[in-house]
Amino acid sequence: MAEEKKFVGFICTGCGIGERLDAGQLETTAKRDGKMQDVKQHEMLCNAEGVKMIQDEIGGGATHIMIAACSRRAKVEAFNFTEVAMTRANLREGVIWVRPDTDENRETTQEMADDYIRMACAEARFMTKPTPSGEQELNKHILVVGGGVTGMTAALEASAAGYPVTIVEKSGALGGNAANWYKSIPSRAPYAEPQDTGIEGMIELVNNNDRITVHLNSTLASTDGAPGRFKATIAEESGATTEAEFGAIVQATGYKPYDPSELTQYHYKDSPDVVTNWEFEALAKAGGPIKRPSDGKEVKAVAFVQNVGQTSKDSGKLPYHSGAGDLIAIKQAMYCKALNGADCDATILFNNLRTPGAAGEDFYRSAQEKMITFSKGDVSEVVPGGELEVKFKDLILNEDTAMKADLVVLDVGMMPNSGPDPYAQLAFEEAEEGSEEKETLRQALEVAPPSILNLKYRQGTDLPHLRHGFNDSHFICFPYETRRTGIYAAGPVRRPMDMRQAQDDAAGAAMKAIQAAENAGKGMAAHPRAGDLSYPSFRKEGCTQCKRCTVECPFGAINEDEQGYPVYNEARCRRCGTCMGACPVRVISFENYSIDTVGQQLKNVDMPDEFSEKPRILVLACENDAYPALDQAGMSGIEINPWARVIPVRCLGSVSLSWITDSLNSGYDGIVLMGCQKGDDYQCHFVRGSAMAHERMSKVGDTLQSLNLEPERVEVYEVAITDVERAPKLINDMAETVEKIGMSPFKF
Amino acid sequence: MSDLNTAMAAKYRANFLKEVEAVVEEGETVKMCMQCGVCAGSCPLGKHWAHPPQEIFMMIRAGKRDEVLKSDSMWMCTSCYNCIVRCPRGVQITHVMHGLAYYAKRLGVVPEGQPTQQVSQLFWDNLMKGGRVNELKLGLSIYFKDGFGDGIKNAMANQKLGMNMMKAGRMSPMEFLSGHTIKDNAGFQKIIKKAQEIEDAKFDGAAK
User: Count of domains in chain A?
Assistant: First the structure.
């Protein structure tokens, strides 16, 4: 860079730092070892005066600043200097709060602080100020796929926020499944009666909204690009196509009801008077008293059989529960009382009655008031006939019994209208030709649904499935945020839910889509590192076209060009650095996070010789969970071993094996890696990062062997943000291990 | 089987829950039971009940009229009110249990020799004579309810208590001979008679 660099360090002596540490020595270290051109001290750096002091230095030409004070997670509003490259040395939570204030510990505490100053200075020297790539575009247009309740709500919410929306709906009308309903579960107090669905009003609002364009009988023939510059081809049934560009996408493709035909004990196929709960809506919507399909007789006794083909591990059944089924049964039992008279018997045969949501319990009570009968029973068979017989085991009275009914309603679950799982496609491509695995994958792909988004992505055509075909990246932690940045799943395609929840979902996804479009316009990451301007780039001359980055990116952000070089899509990137950790030739880097910014930190730690009895333990801690847990340990006064040097990493997935090799070569006695929980119930903010890291680190054994070092010197752990006591213990355990097996002989 | 029982069974043939709603004290709260079983778990005598309260409620809903009314269970209730206090659905369990017991008694379907029922009857009969309870006679009638031999055994077992009560002037042996009544026993008898007429009319009406 042609610009002149000026490095300035700031040392805070507040919060007890000045009393516990020799600030003069810290200043010397920053100048002599850290090569800061100037170092200033302040007794409370985060107050207005301290912040002004820093600003004045920046005004005076400082381009790189090092702040030695509290954790980088503290005082982020005060120390928010976007115009320079900044690093933070954690002297408070990381040093004085985790070490006892005694004379015999003074020396090691000071050494710890000096090292953190050296590390932060080294980091600063090897980073540049992040700036947008210039690739960014602002496109406020939101594409909504699906015109049901969720899609329409998302469109209305986005348009109300001032964003133009295009709805692509496969069928010939808006409204989706709910358009066929008689009424919906109440969403307002006193939650006593079914309420109008409001679908007609919603359709009218959409049709009369100037900002919303609707394409009926249409699908997406292709979708390419990234947030801020999605290019979609909308194909109409007639064959006409429309090309349009969008800032972000909401996929609200909804659900289809489970088909109970295969469950022969219910005789769904044999009797027209056995209907699903979704079909029952149409009987009620027909108007007047509910008549049964076989002979048009007004029904006087209706049995609702709950949980049909759900929550079961049997093949052909749904392994999950759809949640809303019991509320739907309550609602429909009320139809019977309202339309066919109070003397129409409505019996709900349930095992576990689930009435989720604020309304649930009140609605259930209201049904009991209306003399709707709830029987805890396990239905074994529905016997068809003029009068149907429902055989069940009464689970309270523990006896086999039966009841008569004119009509039987089966509570069947919701199945997501997802596209094919892109990772199934990738696994098929990668499976060995002729292998059994390939055959299994091929068969699975044959029955896979057609693509919905037709993404032109390296990693497949549609949103990755999370579980049971639902599209999300984490049901609890990151709702709507799929593993494709800028494309948000909402409604029952994300998880089974009722109409009210779908509307909440739609609003949430619309807001996320707006955030993605806006941030893409500024070249910023959308989430979870919202606002991050850094983005990965690679040195083409060093790249070996190994494709590991394009395959391992958890978000499918990287495409490949014809020659197999990676093509980064900045706006799709979540800035986790998993590509950086994957790259065997270390050509991928961010401006402020690279092989060097971490590599130089660990190299700049003062390494006492083998006979000093002062080992060094390197801790690479995920900044999302492990690092805050260690900060919290400091706040709770839990001790951390004085030999530990902690470096936060964006994700354990960004850890390069070269850091491990380098630190072993430069004499570290132990290495502790802390990532998030991986696997099915993962807590990794970047979905696959922690899992990738664990896989990669399994190969560290070879390095250790070649250096003739003990395997216990490197440990990889899954740490949660709540592991406030466990995280320090893992470090302290490593110190004990080192004491047992002895110091590393690689000190230079 | 009484005429009333036949009439009521005929009237509510298929729906015992509606029958309970109509004639049993606080019966309209039964439908709110959600089978959580807190009542059964709270009952200090729970293990002596053939059917705990929530099961009784389920049986009512399942139309098991005879099984419920001829059950011994509701007679086990000691009115401690633990269940009512804890019921999350406001079912007036204690009252419903007494209501069911009373209704069964009224219909004449109480199991033969049910001791709670027998003691209640002895208490009532004793009370009705003079408008107040004659403790000596009530005690003796309870001791001897299962026959002379048992009576002697019971009396001997409580001999010391009885003697002490007499010494303290708490019980007079003279009560055995006459026993005094309330001041206006005739008036009291009229009140009771009227109340019984009202109660009978209620059941007659319910059976129609």
Answer: 5
H helical segments located in A465-498: none
Give the closest-approach CA distance of A393 to chain B in angstroms: 12
- Test B31 with A371 for CB contact under 8 angstroms: yes
pLDDT tens sequence across A526-536: 988 988 999 99
**A411 phi and psi angles, rounded to 5 deg:** -85, 100
For residue A40, give the nearest of A52, A54, A29 by alpha carbon: A54
Local confidence band at B195 (pLDDT 50, 70, 90 cut-offs): very high
Residue A495 and residue A561 share a domain: no
SS3 letters for chain B?
CCHHHHHHHHHCCCCHHHHHHHHCCCHHHHHHCCCCCHHHHHCCCHHHCCCCHHHHHHHHHCCCHHHHHCCCHHHHCCCCCHHHHHCCCCCCHHHHHHHHHHHHHHHCCCCCCCHHHHHHHHHHHHHHHHCCCCHHHHHHHHHCCCCHHHHHHHHHHCHHHHHHHHHCCCCCHHHHCCCCCCCCHHHHHHHHHHHHHHHHHHHHHHHC
CA angle in degrees (0–180, nearest 5) for A192-A197-A203:
160
Task: Specify the CATH number for B3-111; select among 1.10.1330.10, 3.90.550.10, 3.30.360.10, 1.10.1060.10.
Answer: 1.10.1060.10
Q: Which long-range contacts (CB under 8 A, 24 or more apart) does A734-739 make?
A: A734/A617, A734/A641, A734/A644, A734/A670, A734/A672, A735/A615, A735/A617, A735/A641, A735/A643, A735/A644, A735/A670, A737/A670, A737/A712, A737/A713, A738/A615, A738/A617, A738/A643, A738/A669, A738/A670, A738/A713, A739/A615
Confidence of residue A2 (pLDDT cuts 50, 70, 90): very low
Cβ atoms of B28 and B92 within 8 Å: the answer is: no
Which whole number is the average pLDDT over A609-626? Answer: 93
Q: Could you tell me if A654 and A686 lie in one domain?
A: yes
- Integer Cα distance of A668 and A644 in angstroms: 10
User: Under a CB-based contact definition with an 8 Å cutoff, are residues A673 and A695 in contact?
Assistant: no
Q: Would you call B34 and A364 a contact, using CB atoms and an 8 Å cutoff?
A: yes
Question: Which residues in chain A have Cβ-Cβ distances shorter than 8 Å to B89?
Answer: 365, 368
Cis peptide before A190 (omega within 30 of 0): yes
- Among A352, A384, A412, the domain boundary falls at A412
The 8-class DSSP code of residue A341 comes to -
Give the distance from CA A437 to its chain's centroid.
Answer: 29
**Residue recorded with tokens 């005060």:** A78
Looking at the predicted structure, is the pLDDT value of residue A1 above 50?
A: no
At A3 the pLDDT is 67
Same domain (yes/no): A208, A307: no
Q: Which of A195-199, A252-256, A434-438, A675-679 has the lowest mean pLDDT?
A: A434-438
d(CA A335, CA A330) in angstroms, rounded, equals 9
Band of pLDDT at residue B136, cut at 50, 70 and 90: confident
Q: Are A675 and A696 in contact (CB under 8 A)?
A: no
Least confident of A577-581, A698-702, B42-46, B57-61: A698-702
Query: What interface predicted TM-score (ipTM) does this complex get?
Result: 0.84
Chain A to chain B Cβ contacts (< 8 Å): 34
How many whole angstroms separate alpha carbon B91 and alpha carbon B104?
20
Interchain contact, A369 vs B32, CB within 8 Å: yes
Q: Which residue of B has its CA nearest to A375?
A: B58
- Residue span of the structural domain in which A495 resides: 142-254+417-421+448-522
Q: What integer best gives the mean pLDDT of chain A?
A: 94
Q: How far is A377 from chain B (nearest CA, A)?
A: 11
In a domain, A441, yes or no: no
Partners of residue B61 in chain A, C-beta under 8 Å: 373, 375
* pLDDT at residue B155 in the model: 87
d(CA A97, CA A249): 46
